Amino acid sequence: MTRSVPRTRRIRRSLRVSGGIRRSLRVSGAGAAVLLTLSACSSSSGGDEDTGSAGSSSKVSGQVTVFAAASLKESFTKLGETFEQRHPGTEVSFNFGGSDSLAAGITSGAPADVFASASPKTMATVTDAGAAAGEPSTFVRNRLEIATLPGNPERISSLEDLTASGLKVVLCDKSVPCGAAAQKALAAGGLDLTPVSYEQDVKAALTKVELKEADAALVYRTDVRAAGGKVAGVDFPEAAEAVNDYPITVLEDAPNPGAAKAFVALVKSAEGQRVLTDAGFGTP
User: Fold this and answer.
1) At what angle do helices 120-128 and 177-188 cross, to 10 degrees?
2) Which NCBIfam families does the annotation name (predicted)?
3) pLDDT at 270 over 80
């Protein structure tokens, strides 16, 4: 006896929707074509937006150019590698330097997607010029340390020790965030210090100590940690009066806004925050 085939087949649908809910659907013939079309429309309506989170598989591609404060070099380079691995076909290009110089470049029309500054003041240069897309958000904080030669041969133990006669001390230029923070710390201690040089970013100041061209420098604690055994670090209480907030933003004229948003999301994600705190940054 031949078993008749019902005109209406049981349909089980398989679509992944927001919130992790799953529904199954088995179809054949014209019904399959309709459902495939609907599924494609559903995917295109919101599937290309990127959150940058650890589980994201969104479709971002191309180059994303990030202008970032010099003190972010090690941690952002690591996050850039993570981003490229997570999004095949992307390339993260960095421009690290003094925040004021980076801000000036952006406002002068330098092509960039993301700006991460070492202070709200330098970020304001960009926002005041209308070059930021939306409101920047603070993602980490940083504070100063004294970097000395390995073993601290000059026995520096306080900020006041840097004023000793004959000691060669380097500071960041007053126009950049690490230099402005140094001036705040010195003012908090009631100290007057004339360095042997002012450097244009924190890495340049640290390099002077690493090359033994200076006995000490006021830099960020993240840079002391990144230098490893090349320098020694000395904490001092006045640093608490000069903590820098680091804001980040997607830029208004970003050539690749989708990838820019994805990179910012990664920086602000739990994974990004772990990388940054491991480097010595503090949470906002």
Assistant:
1) 140
2) modA
3) yes
Q: Does residue 235 surpass a pLDDT of 90?
A: yes
pLDDT tens digits for range 105-162: 999 999 999 999 999 999 999 999 999 999 999 999 999 999 999 999 999 999 999 9
Q: Which residue has the tokens 């030669």?
A: 149
Segments in the chain forming alpha helices (H): 30-46, 73-86, 99-107, 120-128, 177-188, 202-210, 221-227, 257-268, 270-278
* One-letter identity of residue 257: P
What span, in angstroms and rounded, lies between the C-alpha atoms of 146 and 164? 14
| Tally of CB atoms within 10 A around 160 | 15
CA distances from 155 to 43, 60, 99, 206, 260 (A): 63, 52, 32, 18, 46
Name the residue with tokens 């402005």: 180
Residue 58: predicted pLDDT: 57
Q: How far apart, in Å, do the first and last CA atoms of the chain sit?
A: 76
- 131: closest CA among 251, 276, 265, 6? 251
3-state secondary structure at position 38: helix
Q: Is the pLDDT of residue 171 over 70?
A: yes
Categorise residue 269: left if φ over 0, alpha if ψ from -120 to 50, beta otherwise.
beta
